[in-house]
Amino acid sequence: MKIANNILSEYYGRLTSRMKKAAEHPEIFQDECFAGLLKAGRRTSFGKEHDFVNIRGINSFRRNVPIREYDDFVPYIDRIRKGEDYVLWDQKVKWFAQSSGTSSGKSKFIPITPDSLNLTHYGGFKRMILSYLLRHPDSKILSGAALTLGGSVKPDVLNGKGIFSGDLSAVLLKNSPAIVELIRTPKRETALMEDFDGKVERICRESTKRNVTSFSGVPSWNLIMLERVLRYTGKKDIREIWPNLELFMHGGINFAPYKKLFEEIISGEDMHYLENYNASEGYFAFQDDENNDSMLLTTDNGIFYEFIPMNEFDDVMSGRRTDIPLLGDVSEGINYAMVISTCGGLYRYLIGDCVTFSSTRPYRIKITGRTKLYINAFGEELMIGNAEKAIAAACEKTDCTISNYTVHPVFMNNKSKGRHEWLIEFAKEPADPEKFAEELDRQVALHNSDYEAKRRNNATMLSLKMVKLKKGTFYKWMEQKGKIGGQNKVPRLCRDSKIANELIKLQ
To answer: Is residue 85 part of a domain?
Structure first.
């Protein structure tokens, strides 16, 4: 396998050199990307409407193209879904990555152009695998199969004539080269099944016979799949089934609360867990160092970046400020909302994710939350990053593990001050639930100074309330919503009690 990996590394020698150059001099590739976006955009309806032909630099680009959220792109996207060509990009589009997102119940349909498919998504994945192989020349991942849980695609509801929409994972599977099928499991038709339970059942039959060396996807759904594989085989350790398993590439949700659960069923210190940031809109970053929990930003695969400091977010979105940082202008430790322009035809698109830079040479990021996924009912400004760190620390200190959770505010009234209510489903329950709740409250305060201030002496907030849910509750809720499998995620931070009430009714 060392020889095979060396051959692969030699084959991708130019990519290796490009990756190194992109890490050292990202501004070169960002300039190239910006010029390419303008060139392609001039030949589109969007580009003609926004006078791309007369745009000469970033300042005129910003004057002509305002920052947009998804809803602002819907009229353009619907035209493509109905069969119109060259609306946003100078290539025909037949695939859409469908996602409900984490802050809205609406489905998003993100155009997947040939360029975004190959340059951005496949390109990002190639960089991650190559980075791993260069660090681990004795790796055996190429000696076996990559297990893919996958999603599903179907004819698009607005057209249906040669245009398809579905999970990003399914779009990538449908378009992967035939040779990839030789080193992937389960069969493509199985991975693309819409019925999650049926899919996992067939994975148990098909993939347990293969030499699986890696797998990838959203931690929560992959954990369910692995637990069912154990029940199917009667084994207690995944390594008994796949002894050469060495790599899990995860993304979509924070891995910290799940890591202990994976370690309990996958033995061995030689198991590697790497995070990647692959959204429907693009492949943005991957973990290139197991000892560093931040991710290397991809700067050379068709994505042009701008960043809004969150303390200036309202001014920027209202148009009072237009000169936001480019990649070369960012600083470490500041919370930014990410704005992207891509070879998928999204120009100055506010993706909704917030990141902070842990370093700027090379540019490494951590996902800190969502621009809309936070709770600020009492001035506490609880971001998802605070919540994830707090619950991971509380679990570690009280020796328990969780499988899912959601949080919402309980507003103050004449009889009581406000507080947060955490609905939690435990995989391993704490010995003392009250002690866990106290520790969680303490950890939230440690990770969020605004929360700490509101909680000090119960000034404006009471200690959080924890509601312990029965095992399987979140799965039932997702099933009712038709959101089983794929890239579907449980909303972590909610601004009202709607989801909490629905979960409690399932008890």
So the answer is: no
Q: Are residues 315 and 262 in the same domain?
A: no
Q: Tell me which of 370, 390, 411 is where a domain ends.
A: 370
CATH code, domain carrying 134: 3.40.50
HEC states along 431-450?
Answer: CCHHHHHHHHHHHHHHHCHH
Query: How many domains does the chain contain in total?
Result: 3
Final residue belonging to a domain, choices 254, 286, 318: 286
Cβ neighbours for 506, distance < 8 A, ≥ 6 positions apart = 473, 476, 477
Residue 98 lies in a domain: no
Q: Per the structure block, which two tokens stand in for 315?
A: 């001014």
What is d(CA 275, CA 285) in angstroms, rounded to the nearest whole number?
Answer: 9
**Per-residue model confidence (pLDDT) at position 11:** 61
Q: How many other CB atoms sit within 10 Å of the CB of residue 404?
A: 25
- H helix or E strand, kind and range, residue 364: strand 363-370
- pLDDT recorded at residue 443: 96
How many angstroms separate the CA atoms of 77 and 83, rounded?
Answer: 10
Shared domain for 356 and 408, answered yes or no, is no
Q: Which amino acid is at 288?
A: D
274 and 213 part of one domain: yes
* Res 1: pLDDT: 52
Question: Do the domain assignments include residue 169?
Answer: no
β pairing state of 184-185 and 145-148: parallel
Average pLDDT per consecutive 10 residues, the chain (507 residues; last block may be shorter) = 56 83 94 97 98 96 96 95 95 90 63 97 94 93 92 79 89 88 92 90 96 93 93 97 97 83 94 96 96 95 96 88 94 96 98 94 90 77 85 95 94 80 96 96 90 84 95 93 79 90 93
pTM above 0.85, yes or no: no
How many C-alpha atoms does 473 have within 13 Å on its Cβ side? Answer: 24
The answer to whether residues 341 and 404 belong to one domain is no
- Domain enclosing residue 450, as ranges: 374-505
Residue pointed to by tokens 């920052």: 67
* 351 and 265 inside one domain: no
For residue 362, say if its preceding peptide bond is cis, omega within 30 degrees of 0.
Answer: yes
What pLDDT score was predicted for residue 5?
56
Q: Does residue 51 sit within a domain? A: yes
Determine the Cα–Cα distance for residues 477 and 440; give it in Å rounded to an integer: 24
H or E segment to which residue 283 belongs:
strand 282-286
Same domain for 445 and 416, yes or no, is: yes
Give the angle 281-190-186 at the CA atoms, nearest 5°.
Answer: 90
Q: Which helix (H) or strand (E) is 200 found in, with range? A: helix 196-207
Evaluate whether 29 touches 298 at the Cβ level (below 8 Å). no
pLDDT at residue 485 in the model: 75
Tell me how far apart the alpha carbons of residues 428 and 263 are, in angstroms, rounded to a whole number. Answer: 13
128 and 233 belong to one structural domain = yes
Judgement on whether residues 271 and 305 belong to the same structural domain of the protein = no
Question: Given this model, what pLDDT does residue 441 score?
Answer: 96
Q: How far apart are CA 361 and CA 344, in angstroms?
A: 27
pLDDT for 491 equals 87
